[in-house]
Design a protein that fits this description.
homodimer, alpha+beta, Arc Repressor Mutant, subunit A, Dna Ligase, domain 1, three-stranded mixed sheet, two-stranded antiparallel sheet, DNA-binding
Chain lengths: 167, 167
DNA sequence: ACGTTTTTGCAACACCGTTGCAACTACGGC
DNA sequence: GCCGTAGTTGCAACGGTGTTGCAAAAACGT
């Protein structure tokens, strides 16, 4: 058997074994892909990419594996979509991310000011803010420049027309 | 015809008329409900509540109306769910909200510190942060106290067991 | 190599939201 | 008040997404 080619795949394999899981050819392919992805991908996209790379795997298996990895805390789900991305650190619990609404690329960051602001919100509202549930959406520098960087993501309301001659 | 009983319904009716829409009995019932809801509700829940109140309306119509209202900017969609809530002001464009992960109640707030933090993030990442896409999730004071305040909302990963005798 | 346990693929299913179409209804004009 | 036009509704059918039952296949410890 081959060795994991990236840091995430290695870490994930260890975690899987520790929890009694097994390392199959398809699972490894998925881990490699997840570890090398440059943007959050959903199960469907992961599956398509795996097929494109020559792996023979069923969509259901991708779903099951992604769920398992989420449960193990190895993946992070982009808020408001089915896309996932690997958690940077083994115990990543407080990262924030900003996702480009145009190209979908995610960038993680750490902001002292944001931490402070969250404390303020916590105090003001009495809420206990839960970890890693904060996510921003915006346009990344690249996509701000070029309009070329397109991609449909519209989870927004179906924009039913009003007053249009809707037959 | 009756007069709208709450501020939101009134505002929504005006906006709908302005855009060439018409005010039907069912639409009005939905607006009344939306204007009086204490927590974000999804189309399904809205529909159920409308039936419970004696209105006879099809689920499809609820979907269409909610979409229309979203398109008009009268409703705001909770990130990561299908639930909606009325925008407080007619032109609300920069409110932030914190949603309780237990009971679903939403509370809007305004935070100077958060504004400042967002500026910092903007500078640091080069992203243009888009409006009203930031949303926090946490436990509200009530739900922190009592465990009684329950409600299923789990859009989280199906938590497929690993190494369990999955049979 | 063998037996046990997990993983996989397939098919079927459940759920959510959307769309085509015919019937209905609001509303402006007379 | 009645009419005609144009927006709205309900129904049924559809498409997409994610889940589950089950038998075959594969991984891993011995």
């Amino acid at each position: 058997m081959e060795e994991p080619s990236n840091e995430f795949a290695l870490r994930a394999e260890q975690a899987l074994r520790r929890s009694g899981g097994r390392i199959t050819r398809r699972r490894r392919a998925l881990l490699e892909l997840l570890g090398s992805q440059r943007t959050p991908l959903g199960p469907r996209q992961l599956h398509r990419e795996l097929l494109r790379r020559g792996a023979r795997i069923d969509l259901v298996s991708v779903y099951r594996n992604v769920s398992a990895l989420l449960a193990l805390g190895l993946l992070h789900r982009v808020v408001g979509s089915s896309a996932v991305r690997p958690c940077r650190e083994a115990r990543a619990r407080c990262h924030h991310a900003i996702v480009c609404s145009a190209c979908g690329r995610a960038r993680e960051f750490h902001s002292r000011a944001l931490e402070r602001a969250l404390s303020e919100v916590r105090r003001a509202t009495g809420f206990r803010v839960e970890e890693h549930v904060l996510e921003l959406r915006g346009r990344c520098p690249r996509c701000r420049r070029s309009r070329l960087c397109r991609r449909r993501q519209s989870r927004s309301g179906g924009a039913r027309s009003i007053g249009g001659s809707g037959r």
